[in-house]
UniProtKB/TrEMBL annotation:
It comes from Persicobacter diffluens. InterPro entries: Fe-S_cluster_assembly_SufBD, SUF_FeS_clus_asmbl_SufBD_core, SUF_FeS_clus_asmbl_SufBD_sf, SUF_FeS_clus_asmbl_SufD, SufBD_N. Coiled coil: none annotated. GO terms for biological process: iron-sulfur cluster assembly. This is Fe-S cluster assembly protein SufD. Belongs to the iron-sulfur cluster assembly SufBD family. SUPFAM superfamilies: Stabilizer of iron transporter SufD. Residues 182-409 form the SUF system FeS cluster assembly SufBD core domain. Residues 18-170 form the SUF system FeS cluster assembly SufBD N-terminal domain. The lineage of its organism: Bacteria, Pseudomonadati, Bacteroidota, Cytophagia, Cytophagales.
Length: 436
């Protein structure tokens, strides 16, 4: 693939930073970083007409606004600012990732029933465990995933040992502090739930300051046999924030993983969530909700790869788009040959509140097995006028009726969040956005 001059400039910057990174990272990840760079150098960042990114021209924005060789400000977050930017009502262990770097000084956690440290410390203290899991998801094709792997130096490592149950939720609080300059953050997080372990992890993304920021984050989740993992992601970044997230999930037999992704703000957001069901009797659940206004743009790409029989995946993504905001949903389900008795369900529902709001949807099924139950579908439209009329006829004013319907549409997705305090916080946000 040929590259434009601006693409070459960006790739030259990335090459320079990659060489500096590889020179100082541990050997356990350095070889993977080199291989990722070689793949990225061959194909480059996604071109404007690249099929997987044709509705989300984030490469163009990166080339226009960001310099990979510029020094990233260290950040000056205080404990008080951290407290204000997390959900204070949620009792959780808090790991603060400041401008892409785990900062234990402003974090607070007990780490009861699990091991936690920085990615660099994991390379030293848990080298075998890290080597067995780092970049081991079968699908490594995404250019931004390759970019993150090529630059890997920082992030949070979490390991829950066999039969351990972590009662307290774990919060990875990503804050980009742009008050001293623009920020490029590329953290790499890893969550490993060993056999019959259970853990709930949620990530929240926030921004301080008015300058531009880029989050190119990868979170790898491994659920071993009979493990149970809940993973939630809440994105509420600044108007000048760009975000690419790759969540890479591998499940072993009899495991259950449930994800929830909520996007509230950001200049341009791309979420890639990739499941591989690598065993029998696996359950995978994916839920998502986007509530956007202004000119915010979100692109949710999901992949579910059924490789073994007797598994089930459930997927429900909803979006509410106001003003000039835009959404994209592309969901792929693969059912491989031999993955008989697969149940796979996918649904995408969207409401457009103005003529200027937009949504592009593309649900996909590729099936190589014959004894399966699979379905997919999408609906795009406006609020139901008959329901509005029904509420108005019962004396409810137009604004309240409008808000009630929006809340009812959005809030049912939250039923899948198993942290009561977090669900209540998100319900408040929906109430505010719905004006009800």
């Amino acid at each position: 693939m040929s590259m434009t001059l601006s693409q070459k400039d960006a790739m030259n910057q990335i090459a320079e930073v990659h060489e500096q990174t590889v020179a100082k990272i541990p050997a356990v990840v350095a070889e993977k970083a080199k291989a990722a760079w070689e793949a990225l150098a061959t194909e480059g960042l996604p071109a404007p007409k690249a099929e997987e990114y044709k509705y989300t021209s984030i490469t163009k924005q990166i080339e226009k606004h960001f310099d990979f060789t510029a020094e990233v400000p260290a950040g000056k977050l205080t404990a008080e600012e951290v407290e204000a930017l997390r959900f204070a009502s949620v009792d959780a262990d808090v790991f603060v990732v400041e401008n892409g770097v785990f900062n234990p000084a402003i974090s607070h956690f007990d780490a009861a029933n699990y091991t936690a440290c920085s990615l660099a410390e994991a390379a030293d203290q848990h080298a075998d465990l890290l080597a067995a899991h780092f970049a081991k998801h079968p699908h490594q094709e995404d250019p931004f995933l390759q970019l993150n792997t090529a630059m890997t130096a920082n992030g949070v490592f979490i390991h829950v040992a066999k039969n351990k149950v972590v009662e307290k939720p774990i919060l990875l609080l990503h804050i980009n502090d742009t008050r001293e300059g623009q920020v490029i953050a590329q953290p790499r997080n890893m969550v490993i739930a060993a056999q019959s372990a259970a853990v709930t992890v949620f990530e929240r993304y926030r921004t301080i300051g008015e300058q531009k920021s880029l989050n190119n984050v990868v979170t790898e989740v491994f659920a071993e046999a009979n493990a149970n993992v809940n993973y939630y992601k809440i994105e509420d970044e600044g108007d000048a924030a760009y975000h690419v997230g790759n969540t890479m999930i591998v499940q072993s037999r009899d495991s259950v993983v449930s994800t929830f992704t909520m996007t509230l703000n950001g200049a341009m957001v791309r979420n890639n969530i990739n499941f591989v069901l690598d065993g029998e009797n696996i359950t995978s659940n994916m839920y998502g909700l986007s509530l956007l206004k202004g000119t915010s743009h979100v692109d949710n790409h999901t992949t579910v790869d059924h490789t073994h029989p007797n598994c089930e995946s459930n997927e429900l993504y909803k979006g509410v788009y106001d003003e000039k905001s835009a959404g994209v949903f592309n969901g792929k389900i693969f059912v491989r040959e031999g993955a008989q008795k697969t149940n796979a369900f996918q649904s995408n529902k969207n409401i457009l509140l103005t003529d200027d709001a937009s949504i592009d949807t593309k649900p996909q099924l590729e099936i190589w097995a014959d004894d399966v139950k699979c379905s997919h579908g999408c609906t795009n439209g406006q609020l139901d006028p008959e329901q509005l009329f029904y509420l108005r006829a019962r004396g409810i004013d137009k604004k309240t009726a409008h808000g009630m319907l929006l809340y009812a549409f959005a809030a049912d997705v939250l039923e899948n969040i198993h942290i009561d305090a977090l669900r209540e916080e998100l319900e408040k946000i929906i109430h505010e956005r719905a004006g009800y």
